[in-house]
Design goal:
CATH class of the largest domain in chain B: Mainly Alpha
Oligomer: heterotrimer
Number of domains of chain B: 2
Number of helices of chain B: 7
Strand order of the largest sheet of chain B: 4-3-2-1-5
Strand content of chain B: 5-15%
Structural class of chain B: alpha+beta
CATH superfamily of the largest domain in chain B: Cytochrome c oxidase, subunit III, four-helix bundle
Strand content of chain C: under 5%
Order of helices and strands of chain C: HHHH
Largest interface: B-C, 60 and 58 residues
Radius of gyration of chain C: 20 Å
CATH topology of the largest domain in chain B: Four Helix Bundle (Hemerythrin (Met), subunit A)
Largest sheet of chain B: 5 strands, antiparallel
Helix content of chain B: 55-70%
Structural class of chain C: mainly alpha
Number of helices of chain C: 4
Chain lengths: 617, 257, 116
């Protein structure tokens, strides 16, 4: 890559306009930021839906304060009703179902994956491998645009007659097809079409990421010199590439059921509200579940692996030590990727698929916990004997470790098919996977935002408010999700519109105890407090763009990986001259070295490196 | 800024970017069609005894389409080889034939689709079944005219004997209990048939558009950067062969078995 | 710039010289003919009554797989491809089989899958 020859051919250099620079950009960093900002907005939206649902769970039948009237105006009386005294703002069951389905969909497909894979992956991966951009910059742009379209379609579905999809983020058939028979296209149609866009976006992204990592690693950056973050993105790319297409196929089939009256997932003799459904029949509801969970389980690792990658980078940098067991972590992440494709039916133990096949999936499920434990253990051991820097990114990374640990370990009883019979579809499941994703992945994402913010803006985020943000989030996250384990073990179903009141114990009737149902109230208050606890972050995020403490070097954390060896912010094309890598990713505190970090591109002192890179010219 | 290895292969992998990209994309396509094949098998295995249709499609049309696609695959690979020898005119010729083959395939496919949409199964109020293609001209508000036959029961309809007699049937609408054409809603077989072949036809269309774009509007790249041009032809060719490969399995599965 | 000299420098998985390319082209034609014959055989085999539909299905799938091998192996050059691509395709093939067999096993009750 010779800039002089390039300029000779190019027309007189022109500063790209606003649209080309920020909206239709092909620069991986701008696309990463687009993903990041859109993803954070969806994260906020998904959270808002939940704050309203938590009101209904804590105080069933009471009008939602503040926003109840607004919801009534926007969504109409089918969705928002009145209480006995005539006050408007009560969430109706249909709206509760819509919000529940859309909370899951938005959080998984529109918030966490775009943030973890789209935003961090796009911004950081090419920098960390010393590449000037992604392998296919225009495909990258299209990938974001598909994601954006998918998001718009999902949001639009709230405002169509009948409202958004109501059948959970899993959209189980036949429920998804018969839930809203009134109008077609309905919320479910929008959901499916939105998903097709999101899946296509992920596929394009995955092709691009994997190609970039295979083809564009800098000279000398061999596989075992890749930062763990890149490995995590690499495996994530494969999960998206190979697990999403079956869901795309399933979505096409369900679209047929929804619009063309096919019966892919509708069995013969289906009766809906006392009426024999007029379809040809012969379909299989379980087929949907298989195709859905064939994506669904790898998707769990799509959610968590980038988080692990982020945390690893931050822990290495702030312990000032090499990561303990880097190689075993790499092999573990590959093993996770491989095994995650053959565990999916542990979501389906209760479908009656027989003991033999259940035993197979139970075994693979137990096996996949081993590499996860290896990664977590390696990270814990990396802390041993370190003189740590407790800055905000590190606090979030340290918070991630036990939170993910709780999330992972509480998954084991769900993986055993005997104990799963009791816990299936209860609040225990909700608590389990939220521990993995909320205080797990989301903490990792926060850590990543605080960590790479200086690279993007040239300024630090405020340290004090960062710590406040961490402390409050940590406390309230646990107050939200810990009691749900208790509720779930007591048998509270996760789908209850009234928080379980229907099944409350009464005189002489066995049911959910007052204490179990009563936990809904403190949980809901903790959710709202958790929302308030994000205010310091939001303010800090915007305030620091212009007012934050300026960095004094391009490598403010004194890290070793390549993204810190660029100008700040990195220009289009990233590196001023081609990079050559001479060492592994985490050479911290090397004895005898002048500083306690050795960047990957620093040539060995003994033998001076040859200049330039003939392969890149 | 130039993206490295967008034309020349990277020494350690021996591949240029687009080739890695297309193979990854094809891997995801394998999973996409794989999941649909999997759905086909499950629907078939789950069907009640004797209720999975056989020979509902015209074998000879399907066979013609198979041969058309195979022929186009040969011309694709020959066009690429011609280009490697620098014979641009022969490349143009071969790839022109490819595009014509793609159009032929799509025409035959549309005819087959149309044939299914005018094909009706009519159940009469007395329980008899009539089955055949609707005669648009003679169908009125009172009577439905079919060119077809009277299967003795549903089972006979599931595997119509080859060369059964075809007669003109006129049914007063008053005697009709239900009447449904062989669209995707007819049963799970037609449903999966339309999804599999429809998705495949979309791939044929997309492949034809890409090949045409490289062949026509983008042909000047050959003058400026022949190596990049050959790569493009190779990558689009790989996609085309994959589309052919899928059809090689679709044909026996849907038409013959 | 002469195209023929240019093309001689282009790396080719199955040969470099014009002579080798011509040989490859003859091979592609032979394979094309083989595929056509295979198509005929599939139809022919499907029309024979073996007494059991299973045999028809197995025969058709064997012929289709052989044809698929010819297309993938020679037209797509998989017979002499790079390691990286083999690795990707091996994973894909494995996961595809897992999806198919595990799903089928978990939905077919009893040990025998009956073909209709």
């Amino acid at each position: 890559m010779e800039s002089t020859t390039h300029d000779a051919h190019a027309p007189p250099h022109q500063e790209p306009g606003f649209w080309q620079k920020y909206i239709f950009s092909t620069d991986h960093k701008v696309i990463g930021l687009q993903y990041g900002i859109t993803g954070l907005m969806f994260l906020f939206m998904g959270f808002c839906l939940m704050t309203m649902m938590r009101w209904q769970l804590a105080y069933p039948g009471h009008p939602i304060p503040i926003v109840g009237k607004l919801l009534f105006r926007v969504l109409g009386e089918d969705m928002v009703g009145k209480d006995a005294a005539g006050h408007v703002g009560v969430m109706m069951p249909g709206l509760y179902n819509s919000f529940g389905a859309m909370h899951g969909t938005i959080m998984v497909f529109l918030a966490i994956v775009p943030l973890a894979f789209g935003a961090f992956g796009n911004f950081v991966t090419p920098l960390q491998i010393g590449a000037p951009d992604m392998a296919f910059p225009r495909v990258n742009m299209v990938s974001y645009q598909f994601y954006f379209m998918g998001g718009i379609i999902m949001l639009a579905s709230f405002f169509i007659p009948g409202g958004a999809a109501q059948s959970g983020w899993t959209s189980y058939s036949p429920l998804a097809t018969v839930a809203d028979m009134g109008t077609r296209p309905n919320g479910q149609t929008f959901w499916i079409i939105g998903m097709v866009f999101l899946i296509s976006s992920s596929l394009l992204g995955a092709v691009n990421f994997i190609t970039t990592i295979i083809q564009m690693r800098a000279e000398g950056l061999t596989w075992m010199r890749l930062p763990f973050f890149v490995w995590a993105q690499f495996v994530t790319g494969f999960l998206l590439l190979l697990a999403f297409p079956p869901l795309e196929a399933a979505a096409v089939l369900q679209l047929g059921d929804n619009l063309l009256h096919t019966s892919f997932f509708l069995p013969t003799g289906l009766v809906v509200s006392g009426q024999h459904l007029h379809v040809s029949g012969g379909g299989s509801p379980l087929l949907w579940q298989h195709l859905f969970w064939f994506l669904g389980h790898p998707e769990v690792y799509v959610l968590i692996l980038p988080g692990m990658g982020i945390v690893t980078e931050i822990i290495a940098c702030n312990t000032r030590k090499p990561i303990w067991g880097y190689r075993s972590m790499v092999y573990s992440v590959l093993t996770i990727g491989f095994l995650s494709f053959i565990v999916w039916a542990h979501h389906m133990y209760l479908t009656g698929m027989g003991t033999r096949i259940a035993t197979f999936f139970q075994t693979t499920t137990m096996m996949i916990s081993i590499p996860s434990v290896i990664i977590l253990t390696s990270l814990f051991i990396s802390l041993w004997g370190a003189s740590m820097r407790f800055n905000t990114p590190m606090l979030f990374a340290l918070g991630f470790l036990p939170m993910f640990g709780i999330g992972g370990l509480t998954g084991l009883p769900l993986g055993f098919n005997a104990s799963d019979i009791h816990l299936h579809d209860t609040y225990y499941v909700i608590a389990h996977f939220h521990y993995v994703v909320a205080p797990g992945t989301i903490f990792a994402l926060f850590a990543g935002i605080y960590y790479w913010y200086p690279k993007v803006t040239g300024r630090f985020m405020n340290e004090f408010w960062g710590r406040v943000h961490f402390a409050l989030s940590f406390i309230f996250m646990n107050l939200v999700f810990m009691p749900m384990f208790i509720q779930g073990m007591a048998g509270l179903s996760r789908r209850m519109y009234d928080g379980g009141a229907t099944y409350a114990a009464q005189d002489g009737v066995v049911g959910l105890s007052k204490q179990v149902i009563g936990l809904n109230i403190p949980i809901s208050h903790a959710v709202w407090a958790l929302g308030l606890a994000q205010l310091p972050f939001v303010i800090n995020f915007f305030w620091s763009i212009r007012r934050g403490k300026k960095i004094t070097s391009d490598n403010p954390w004194q890290a070793t990986t390549l993204e810190w060896q660029t100008p700040t912010p990195p220009p289009h094309g990233n590196f001023e001259k081609p990079v050559e890598v001479f060492r592994g990713p985490y050479e911290y505190s090397v004895p005898g070295h002048a500083t306690d970090f050795t960047p990957q591109n620093e040539p060995p002192t003994a033998a001076p490196a040859p200049h330039g890179n003939p392969l890149l010219s | 800024m130039e993206i490295p290895y967008s034309v020349k292969p990277r020494p350690d992998t021996g591949l240029y970017n687009a080739k890695v990209g297309i193979w990854l994309f094809l891997a995801s396509e394998v999973m996409l069609f794989g999941a649909l094949f999997c759905s086909y098998i499950l629907l078939r295995v789950n069907a009640p005894d004797g209720m999975w249709p056989h020979h509902w499609l015209n074998i000879w049309l399907g066979m013609t389409n198979t041969i058309v696609l195979i022929f186009s695959s040969v011309t694709v690979v020959l066009s690429w080889a011609s280009l490697k020898m620098g014979q641009f005119k022969r490349y143009k010729l071969y790839q022109g034939v490819t595009i014509l083959c793609a159009l032929t395939f799509l025409c035959i496919k549309s005819y087959e689709y149309h044939d299914k949409f005018i094909h009706y199964e009519v159940i009469l109020t007395d329980g008899r079944i009539a089955d055949g293609h609707i005669e648009k001209g003679q169908t009125t508000a009172d009577t439905v005219a079919l060119l077809g036959w009277w299967p003795k029961d549903e089972a006979a309809l599931m595997d119509p004997p080859m060369g059964h007699p075809v007669e003109k049937i006129e049914i007063p609408r008053k005697q009709i209990k239900t009447m449904e054409n062989y669209g995707p809603w007819h049963n799970t077989y037609t449903a999966i048939y339309f999804v599999l072949t429809g998705l495949h036809a979309l791939h044929v269309l997309a492949g034809a558009i890409v090949i045409f774009a490289i062949w026509g509007p983008l042909a000047k790249v050959w003058e400026q950067d022949p190596e990049r041009y050959i790569n493009r032809v190779e990558v689009s060719g790989l996609f085309w062969h994959f589309v052919d490969l899928v059809w090689i399995f679709l044909f026996p599965v849907l038409y013959l078995l | 710039m002469s195209h023929s000299t240019q093309s001689a420098t282009v790396p080719h998985p199955a040969g470099h010289s014009t002579e080798e390319i011509r040989r490859d082209m003859r091979r592609y034609l032979i394979i094309g003919v083989a595929l056509m014959i295979g198509t005929g055989m599939t139809v022919w085999a499907s029309l024979i009554d073996f007494g059991s539909r299973e045999i028809n299905i197995v025969a058709a799938l064997i012929i289709a797989s052989a044809k698929g091998f010819l297309v993938a192996g020679f037209f797509m050059h998989l017979i002499s491809e790079k390691k990286m691509i083999y690795a990707v395709l091996a994973c894909t093939g494995f996961f595809f089989l897992a999806l198919m067999y595990l799903t089928l096993l978990s939905m077919a009750h009893g040990s025998v899958i009956q073909i209709r």
